Amino acid sequence: MAPETQPHLQPPPSWSAIPQDLAVLVLRLLPAYVDRARFAAVCPQWRAAARLPLPPPQPLLALPNGTFYSLPYTKPFRFPGCGFAGYQSVCGNWLVFSRDNGCFLVDPFSGATMTLPALSCIRLQPPNAVAKWSDSDDGRARFADPYITWMHISDESHKLHISKLIMCSPNLVAALVGIGHTTQILMCKPGALSWSVRAYDECKGFEDMAFYQGKLYAIADDENLLVVNISEDHNTGDPQVSKTAQVIKGDRCPWYHAVFDDNMMHNQKIYLVESRGALLMVRRAIWCKVPERGVDREIVARRNEFEVFKADFERSRWDKVTTVGDDQLLFLGRRCSMALSVSQYDIPGDSILFLDDDEENRVEYSYEGENTSFSTYHLRFRFISSALSKISWKRGDDMRLAVWLFPQDR
Ligand SMILES: *[C@@H]1O[C@H](CO)[C@@H](O)[C@H](O)[C@H]1NC(C)=O
Ligand SMILES: *[C@@H]1O[C@H](CO)[C@@H](O)[C@H](O)[C@H]1NC(C)=O
Ligand SMILES: *[C@@H]1O[C@H](CO)[C@@H](O)[C@H](O)[C@H]1NC(C)=O
Fold first, then answer.
1. Does residue 369's CB lie within 6 angstroms of at least one atom of ligand 3?
2. Could you identify the atom of ligand 1 that is nearest to the CA of residue 215?
3. Which residues line ligand 1 (CB under 6 A)?
4. Which CATH architecture describes the domain 15-54?
């Protein structure tokens, strides 16, 4: 055979031999978590490329029955292995399950697990705190504090409920815990035996918390932003709240809960989310129809409206903004919210994606329609579009807590 024909006999180059920076270029353009996972599963070289720092993909939408959607796809998928159904909450990349002796967290992306103490194991600050009672005019004993403190609600520990969990660092978890709308800030170290709480501080209608630029912030329904000062317990080294201080004076809308002439009432949810280096407060108004007297008494949610404010720490105020940026999508959830930059994905930004995820112990209205989904509020055009025709599930107590789950690159 003539030597010139020999190049034709060489094996074709292997796909795994593509240069790593080319593989990274491809990965960066994939907005869906499942596509990146499939890419990484091809060969060890591609898996190594997928482990490099990459812009985060879109979150998963998780349903309590163990079904996940990897946006922007509308086809459900399941993680291999266990089903992850029946979670109680979510915290970034962690699904939170309750166990008799505490909380059990699983990262379905990596399989990592973590445990948190039970809500029956709480260290009081000060340790010798007791409920303060005084006699009222009619001779009955009542709490002496003018406001509700942890000592008022701790007796009903079986009713305590975690409404928000934040992983501030590998050694610090903060939670909003309480009964109904009345909550307090608790803290613990993962794996520790107890939470810690300030016994005599006022419990508030906390709406959200965020860990922003190394500090923990909390906001109540008065829209005052508090910074939470954290210290260590001298004996155990466990984290605890040393004090809270107001850093922004809120401007809560004055007609909150008023019923207007057209029988419409305004309900409100507040979210904190970091976007492009700023701390944002999103005020979500849920306009509800109050029934005429006599007939059906159900208050029914109708339209949603959003207003976005940026924290101005220097002037101690919330500044209203009309845009969050063409590259930003805000995924809002009662349990976990996050902003995602989408400039490289060819997806329109300047939008808020939100769920009808009311707390099970704070249901103030019902909904029309049997099914629900997530919806998108387009800030520039101020209109809402719904994913109902593509992804939907039946409302119901067991399906109330649909959540966003954010894959963490590692
Ligand atoms: C927390 O409070 C202590 C005592 O008031 C103060 O020295 C410290 O600087 C505060 N830390 C933060 C992060 O604000
Ligand atoms: C969970 O709910 C979704 C939406 O209703 C449905 O498509 C899916 O089949 C359900 N999964 C299970 C395991 O029941
Ligand atoms: C609601 O969703 C279920 C699937 O979860 C579907 O079978 C049913 O037809 C939907 N109902 C309506 C009224 O769209």
1. no
2. 13
3. 229, 242
4. Up-down Bundle (1.20)
CA distances 93 to 21, 136, 204, 406, Å, are 27, 50, 27, 5
For residue 113, the Cα-to-chain-centroid distance in whole angstroms is 19
Q: 65: which 2 tokens?
A: 């029955």
Which-ligand-closest: CA of 215? 1
Backbone angles phi, psi at 316, to 5 degrees: 55, 50
Domain extent listing, the chain: 15-54, 87-253, 255-395
Torsion, Cα 252 253 257 259, to 10 degrees, reads 170
371 CB within 6 A, ligand 3: yes
CA triplet 285, 96, 282: central angle to 5 degrees? 20
How much is the pTM? 0.91
CA-proximal residue: ligand 1, atom 6 (nearest): 229
pLDDT in tens, 38-48: 999 999 999 99
Q: Would the pLDDT of 351 be above 70?
A: yes
Ligand 2 centroid to residue 166 C-alpha, Å: 28
Separation of CA 133 and ligand 1 centre (Å)? 32
| Average pLDDT, rounded, for the chain | 89
Write the pLDDT tens digit of every residue in 92-123. 999 999 887 788 999 999 889 999 999 989 99
- The top-scoring range by mean pLDDT among 157-166, 370-379, 395-404 is 370-379
Asked if pLDDT for residue 71 goes beyond 90, the answer is: yes
Q: Which runs of consecutive H residues, i.e. helices, occur in 192-260?
A: none
